[in-house]
Amino acid sequence: MANDSQRICPVCDSSVNSNAEICPVCGCDEEGGPQDEAKAFAWFQQTAEKGEAEAQVCLGLMYENGQGVPQDEAKAVYWYQRAADQGDASAQFNLGVMYAHGRGLPQDYGKAAYWWEKAAEQGEPDSQFNLGFLYATGKGVRISESRAA
Ligand SMILES: [Zn+2]
Fold first, then answer.
1. 27 Cα–ligand 1 center, Å
2. Which parts of the chain have pLDDT scores under 50?
3. What is the model's pTM?
């Protein structure tokens, strides 16, 4: 007996047949993982250009990891930056990581601290941890025992 029930794709909100593992619109699975990388890249690019922060972060990740597109850290930074400017906490965290490691842009602990601070204000837990490390080592920020605690 055919199962023609539908589910809603967590990434693109399309109605997808429950039997289909991969969304035919955005190429992502039920957990939102990009399975069909070429299709996912095309979808995220189109959506990111419309200004959607979540898609901008996903597009940045695909550039950073070389999924569906040749790896390009400068382009990853570009998309993280656009989403971070919109106040997206995970973009702010990722941008801080790029600054801390000098990936896709010159290394700058001060800017890493700036973006982790913004993400931490929104409760992003990894940013809080990384900030604690920066404060403890005095990288990019004035050494402050209390902030590292
Ligand atoms: Zn989808």
1. 6
2. 149
3. 0.87
